[in-house]
Amino acid sequence: MSDFTSNFWSVYVAGIVIISISACALLLWFSGKARAMTASDNTTGHVWDGDLREMNNPLPRWWVGLFIITILFAAVYLYLYPGLGGSPGSSGWTSKGQFEAEVAKGDAEVAPIYAKFMAMKVEDVSKDPQAHAIGERLFMNNCSQCHGSDAHGGKGFPNLTDNDWLHGGTPEKIVETLHKGRVGNMPPMAAAVGTSDDVKNVANYVLSLSGSPHDSVRANLGKEKFGVCAACHGADGKGMQAVGSANLTDNIWLHGYGENAIIAMVANGKTNIMPAQEGKLSDAQIHVLASYVWGLSNNAPAKQ
């Protein structure tokens, strides 16, 4: 770890750069001074293809000039810009600073567009073709990695088109989710439920809530034990958006379907994280993105 906290690598890189440039200059100087042993006809004695002889002429001036310009350019560049290890350069340029300047320039160019959308409700923005195109691009760049390009999600990643929401699907809740992110935590509950047989009974009762295939005898035995789960999912199993617990009656299974999947969930629990976007996207971008997401399950706007 000390290699990353000391200035060794900075000095090492700076040394390699200086040695390389100095070596180029010395090579040019020696090549101009050194003279090869030549015959009386100014050739080196090397012959190819019978009659192709190597002459001992000096390097062309234009080539030498370009070589010198290259060395001088490298020296000026290293003086102005960071290149000698940890040296910042006299110009004060940084890649981070350039990035931030370009982002600020881009934000300034699109500010009038976003200002118009910020003055509108999310529901109205979702019907605007231009906002839809911007929101779609924001979604592809920031959300599709988990939720898929079609927003249908996958195992462990919610489908955003089915109007089934863990924390609520109102525009305000979607904006809140994008800003702050979410942490979904289903703790291991096997010990609280009882024996492995009790867990299996509860799993079948959960399946019965959505009308899924199940063992009715085990489901009846598991109903009482479901009281342990009701604290989050409600006595009727419909979940509570206030705590982000899933609705167990709608036959939508985020982490897998069937008795074994439910048993594994009760036994092992699950933690899901939706990262916050407020440090990555501006308020205006989140507003437009929220309108796009809301529109996916609420009469999505017409495309251009």
Automatic annotation (TrEMBL):
Residues 130-210, 217-297 form the Cytochrome c domain. Heme c 2 binds at residues 186, 229, 232-233. It is found in: Cell inner membrane. It holds the Pfam family Cytochrome_CBB3. GO terms for cellular component: plasma membrane. The chain crosses the membrane at residues 12-30, 62-81. Its cofactor is heme c. Pathway: Energy metabolism; oxidative phosphorylation. Heme c 1 binds at residues 143, 146-147, 274. GO terms for biological process: oxidative phosphorylation; proton transmembrane transport. InterPro entries: CcoP_N, CcoP_N_sf, Cyt_c-like_dom, Cyt_c-like_dom_sf, Cyt_C_IC, Cyt_c_oxidase_cbb3_su3, Cytochrome_c_Oxidase_Subunit. C-type cytochrome. Part of the cbb3-type cytochrome c oxidase complex. Belongs to the CcoP / FixP family. This is Cbb3-type cytochrome c oxidase subunit. The lineage of its organism: Bacteria, Pseudomonadati, Pseudomonadota, Betaproteobacteria, Burkholderiales.
